[in-house]
Recover the amino acids of this structure.
């Protein structure tokens, strides 16, 4: 359960470095979990790491257990314990609440460019989810998310994706010669 005033994940207490070289197996598990969370939420790699480390701070929950639970979201491996699942869910909800950005961009992107970038983002999202070990693919996916953020004026990939999908699905203005009753058809400017 999250509080009404969540603590920003970047200011959360406790260590959050990635495992050292001595823990290369754990580091690999964490990196795969980051890829899975990036694809599922969607979010940046930094935000996915914050979710993992925040969840690992719950009593009786370790970073390895949280990372393996995130990996299991792909439908592989054993289901996580209730404590690990609850910690992961709470950390995810906290991240999404803290980074909510309801503002809209001042200038709307070109619809063709937006559709192209959104399609590329979805393609990379599917590939990153299918291949969580591929660091190059994870970086390309993160770049695609960043591009959506910049195009739409959002701070998070989740917010940018929601805004992009809303803009792509928005009703279009009808052609000036078409009086098919589309929203805004009578107010369409003549150029």
């Amino acid at each position: 359960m999250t509080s009404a005033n969540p603590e920003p994940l970047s200011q959360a207490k406790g260590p959050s470095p990635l495992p050292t070289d001595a823990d290369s197996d754990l580091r690999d598990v964490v990196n795969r979990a980051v890829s899975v969370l990036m694809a599922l939420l969607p979010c940046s790699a930094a935000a996915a790491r914050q979710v993992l480390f925040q969840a690992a701070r719950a009593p009786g929950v370790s970073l390895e257990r949280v990372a393996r639970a995130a990996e299991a979201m792909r439908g592989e491996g054993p289901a996580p314990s209730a404590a690990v699942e609850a910690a992961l869910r709470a950390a995810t909800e906290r991240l999404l609440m803290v980074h909510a950005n309801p503002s809209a961009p001042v200038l709307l992107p070109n619809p063709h460019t937006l559709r192209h970038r959104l399609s590329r983002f979805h393609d990379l999202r599917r590939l990153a989810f299918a291949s969580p070990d591929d660091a190059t693919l994870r970086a390309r996916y993160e770049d695609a998310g960043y591009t959506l953020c910049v195009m739409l004026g959002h701070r998070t990939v989740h917010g940018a994706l929601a805004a992009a999908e809303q803009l792509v699905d928005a009703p279009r203005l009808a052609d000036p010669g078409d009086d098919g009753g589309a929203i805004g058809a009578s107010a369409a400017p003549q150029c």
Summary: The CA atoms of residues 17 and 35 lie 17 Å apart. The helical segments are 24-40, 45-55, 63-72, 82-98, 111-130, 135-152, 157-169. Confidence is low (pLDDT under 50) at residues 1-16, 173-191. The longest helix spans residues 111-130.
